[in-house]
Amino acid sequence: MTNKLLQILSLLVLTTACQTKKTNPRTILAVVAHPDDETTISPVLAKYAATDSVYLIIATDGQYGITDHAAIPAGDSLVAIRNEEAKCSCAKMGIHEPIRLGIQDGMGLNGHGDFYEQEPMLKERLLDEILRINPDVIVTFGPDGDTGHPDHRMVGLVTTELLLRENLTDKMDLYYLGWTEEQTEKYKAWNLNYSAIESFNTVISFSDEDEAKSNEAIRCHESQFTKEEMDKWISTELADDSNVLYFRKFAMDKEIRKGF
């Protein structure tokens, strides 16, 4: 076989590989605690929705997310409204409709219900969905838990636990969302937790178009934020032209040691 023929065959293989990659998008799964938590990474979800299949799992029903301006009592009526808001948000980002696990808001840690009933339910339902969706990438809260909300921390911890328990870390890449100290300065009232910038190993940029979709998603959550609050939030985001979010990729070191 001549060198020229070998070159042609190699080019054909490379072309086919590129075409295969384009026609086989990845599956990306975001796992959050409450309806509206997806707004923490909505520009990135909107970005990947253009090329990949993006899913959102919402662990809790959000029934205790009462606000003065909405005047909706805690319970089923608020759950129904927040479900619709989450659907609206996903549509604005261009991702699949939200998957709601229906775990009780607060998971019993807020004086309502029993944590030791809710937590096993979360594990069972979340694992079922992870195995069904079979994602290439999972994004969730890191140990700092965004605002430090117990539900945020628990969802991130349980997601990590399931991947370790089921030996899925080689099959699914796990990423934790986190904030830098500079980013938290934008929202001092939210008391966001942060990590040293050197602790992040993944920096994802997004376009103005992605940010516009994210801002539309924010406006879906009328039960949680007043128009004035949303206007201020969006204007703050628009004023920040860095257009990046930071993530930490979970990595397994499988070297076997005989001591610390």
**Can you count the beta strands?**
7
Rg on CA atoms, Å? 20 Å
- Beta content: 15-25%
What is the ordering of alpha helices and beta strands?
HEHEHEHEHEHEHHE
Q: Which spans have pLDDT < 50 for at least 5 consecutive residues?
A: 2-22
Q: Major sheet: size, sense and barrel closure?
A: 7 strands, mixed
Number of helices: 8
Overall body shape? globular
User: What is the average of the pLDDT values?
Assistant: 91
Going across the biggest sheet, name each strand in turn.
3-2-1-4-5-7-6
Helix content: 40-55%
Structural class, by secondary structure, is alpha/beta
Q: Termini, distance in Å?
A: 56 Å
In terms of topology, how is this protein built?
Elements: H1 3-23, E1 27-32, H2 42-49, E2 53-60, H3 76-93, E3 99-103, H4 115-133, E4 137-141, H5 150-165, E5 173-178, H6 181-184, E6 202-205, H7 208-218, H8 227-239, E7 244-249
Parallel strand pairs: 1-2, 1-4, 2-3, 4-5
Antiparallel strand pairs: 5-7, 6-7
Helix pairs in contact: 2-7, 3-7, 4-5
